[in-house]
Amino acid sequence: MDGLKPYILMGTALGVLESLLIPPFLPFRLGLANAATLAAVLLLGTRAGLYTTVVRTLAVSAITGGLLSLPMFFSLAGGIVSAITMSAVALLPVSILAVSASGGAASMVAQLALFAITGSLSIDTSLVLLPWMSSWGILSGLAVGLIATRLPCPRAEYPAVSGSLRIDPQVRIQ
Amino acid sequence: MMIRPRNILPVIAILSAAITGNPVIMSLTALALFPLRARSCHGLLFVAGGALVMACLAGLSSASIFFLRSSLLALAASFVSLRSRLLEGIIADMHAIRREMKSRTVTMNMEWIRRQFPILPARRAHPLAETFVWSILLIPLLAAFAPSHPLSAPEEFILESPDGTRILTEGRHELGRSGGRITVDISRTGARVLAAECPQQRCLHQGSIEAGSGRSIICMPNRFVIRSRRKAKVDGWTG
Asked: What is the pTM of this model?
């Protein structure tokens, strides 16, 4: 995949930033690094978003010191689910904020489901937490969407349209 | 390097972030730096070089390490913003390119265009689709009000008396002054008055109340109200 490096770099920087900003014992995380995933999904497609998510999660956990730990796998699962959801929602004609909010909510729901499956939370407790966590996911998704619209994205380069391909409209058939 | 506010500001921001050592200021700095363009990069390089020199001179104290780290972060941000535009601008570009491709129907087929743009985000949101997505997002929030949700599960009975309000645990309770004493039986599913010393015995006739029903038993001589209450239960957060 070409052109993924800036997104991975951005995602790692944002993730490290968030780990500095928010103490690690809080269950509520903002998911700032999701902004890079959102940009990659919107501009390069689903597969690029998934690559970005996986690599930046590994990189962030390596930097902040939790490589291959349990929270890393939870955040990895949440990130993957949110990337898939965002790429599905982006197929509809909706705003970027709606796309990122659905991604945030989906990651929260996925993490809760994983908690319930692995048994670190009981099913009742995760059901109790579901509305709170998903509303937090929507809020953080809005914040992430606002940040993502300010993110610098590398210029997409399409060789097919560069330079001389602008042809005369007279030649058009059909 | 031109001296302009947009070239000076990031330097000041990084310096203040490094000096105060505050992660909040630092993160705000980095966010403010993201949309910057190429030229400020030189100033950031200067700051990072200075930080490196300072770290070498002072030995790797924690302050200089923090300084180094923050300037490296900002440096990465500015490198990323070197050849970049904001997301919406790029999406507008993609739409323009796609429109142009569509107009040239001689050589292009739609499959090729689709391969070029794996996901083409909408420029303007359609209100119907927007409403659809947001209403789906609200479904988990509505789950809080479902009757079978544990958040609205019936749990406990409270006793309101002139002396105050307290929670009645399961079992039998002897309540009230002598002469008007009542015996209350609390179980998981309901509460009822077993015996009363007063002549009218109205609390006995009120029967049993179900847990979570919101109903109550009233004892007039003692001015007691026994009420079932919904209780939000969040325990076992850590398992």
From this structure: 0.61
